[in-house]
Amino acid sequence: MSEKNKSEAQKDKILIAVVQGQDANIAMDALNDGGFGVTRLPSLGGFLGQKSATLMIGAYTGHVSEAIDLLNKTCRKRVAFIAVPMENSPLPMPAPTPITIGGASIFTLEVEHYEEI
Q1: 40 lies in which domain range?
Q2: How many structural domains comprise the chain?
Q3: In a domain? residue 52
Q4: Is the pTM of this model over 0.85?
Q5: 16-20, 46-50, 62-66, 111-115: which range is least confident on average?
Q6: Which residues of 35-58 are buried (b: 16+ CB within 10 A; e: fewer)?
Q7: How many angstroms separate the CA atoms of 99 and 80, rounded?
Q8: Which of 24, 55, 93, 94 would be a feasible disulfide site paired with 83, CB 3.0-4.6 Å?
């Protein structure tokens, strides 16, 4: 590998984005249209047990912010309600409590080596 190719390979990044299942297809379409390679892995949310998707996105260093902007436009936050038991209540009446879910949790990693076999 030439010195130029080595320096270019070090600029590669992979973004790992955990998004809600209902936003995954829209986000993938936007990323693909933007020229990013995307792989979707099914996952399950730990807090509410809802479907989510883990997107692995390949990007060069200079294009990471563009990928994050696309995720920001396509993955929105929502308000959901969970039933929380009320303390000191004579009856087990759950009180609906609003929580914010959704958006995207994005991790950016450097790629040291990439090989297709």
Answers
A1: 3-76+103-110
A2: 1
A3: yes
A4: no
A5: 46-50
A6: ebebeeeeeeeeeeeeebbbbebb
A7: 5
A8: 94
